[in-house]
Amino acid sequence: MTGASSRGPAAARAIVAGDRRVLARTITAVENGDPSADRILRALYPQSGRAVVVGITGPLGVGKSSLVNALVGLLRSRGESVGVIGVDPSSPFTGGSVLGDRIRLERRADDTGVFFRSMASRGAAGGVAAATREVARLMDSAGFDVVLVETVGSGQVDVAIRDIASTSIVVVVPHLGDEVQTLKAGLFEIADIFCVNKTDLPGADLAEKDLAELVTLGERSDGWAPPVVGTSTIEPTRGIRELWDDVLAHEQFLDTSGERARGERRRLSAEIVGIARDRIGQELTRRLERDPSLRRLLDEVVAHRIDPRAAAERLVRGGRRSR
Fold first, then answer.
1. Tens digits of residue pLDDT in 93-121
2. Contact 47, 68 (CB under 8 A)
3. What is the DSSP letter of 51?
4. What is the pTM of this model?
5. Which residues on neighbouring strands pair with residue 136, listed in sequence order?
6. Distances (CA, A) of 247 to 71, 143, 191, 228, 253
7. DSSP symbol at 158
8. What CATH class has 48-257?
9. 176 vs 28, 81, 230, CA distance in Å?
10. How open is the CA angle 192-193-196, to the nearest 5 degrees?
11. Domains of the chain, residue spans
12. From residue 58, how far is each of 114, 151, 179 by CA, in Å?
C-alpha cells in the first residue's frame, strides 16, 4: 500500500463509502504490519463500535465453516450485511494460511453485502492473529452490520476470541468424549453459547443434554447462563435461526447488564498492552542487534555469565548494569 500514509483520510473515507478494493488493500497492509495502514486505522476508529462481532470457535472438524455459511445465508435473507474473517492455521514454513484458498462461502459473486477475508494465525496464541481485531474493526467501520470471526481449531477451544468478539460461540459435535472434560476445566467463562453441530449424526440429543447439565453446574461471574442449541447445516438446515436468536439475546444482555462496557474496557486494555508489548519488543530486538553495549549483554548471556532474566532486567532499566 505504497503512499497510503499520505492518503490515510482519503482511504478511510473510501472504506466508509463502501469501496471494497480499498478495504481489501488496507487489510493486507494490516496483516503485513505495514505502518502505512496506521493513519487509516486511526481515522476509522471513531466509525467503529457499531457492528455485532461474533466469534465462532471449536476443534477441527466440527463444521465451523459450514455453520458460518448457514449464518451468512440467514443474515443476508434478513437484509443484514456481513463481514467474515476466517483465521486459518499458519504454514510453519511461510507463515501463510494453508487453508485460505479453500471454498468456504457459497454466495453470489455480485453480492456486495458479504465480504470474506481469510487470514493466517501466524502462530498467535489461541489461533487468533494479533491483526484480527484490527481487521474486524475495519469491517465494522466499513458499515457491515455483523462481523463473524471463525478461528482455527487446534484440538481445544481457542480462548483468544474473547479479546475480539462480544459474543463467542463454542461449537462441538456429538460424541464429545474428552471435549466434555475440557469444558469442565473452565471454558464456561469463554462460551456465551454452546452449539452442538451436526445433529444429523447419532448421539446429538445426548450431547445437548450433557452440555445443558454442565451449564447448570457452572455459575458465571457475569450472571449469563450459556444456552445450548443444536444445529445441522445439512439441507434442510436445523437450528440456525435459533442460534442467531441466542446471539441477539446475549447482545441484549450485554446492554442491559452493563457487561458490554466492562467487556469493551477489558478488550481494549488487552489490546493496548499487546500493542505496547510488540512495539517495545521490536525496539529491544533492534537495539540488541545494533547497540554495541547491548550486544555485549547478549554475549554475556550466550557465555552463561548472566541469565536471560537478569539481562531482561538490565534492558528494562535502559541497559545499565546493576550494582
1. 344 444 444 445 555 666 889 999 988 76
2. no
3. S
4. 0.84
5. none
6. 11, 19, 11, 11, 10
7. -
8. alpha beta
9. 37, 34, 14
10. 150
11. 7-47, 48-257, 266-316
12. 23, 8, 10
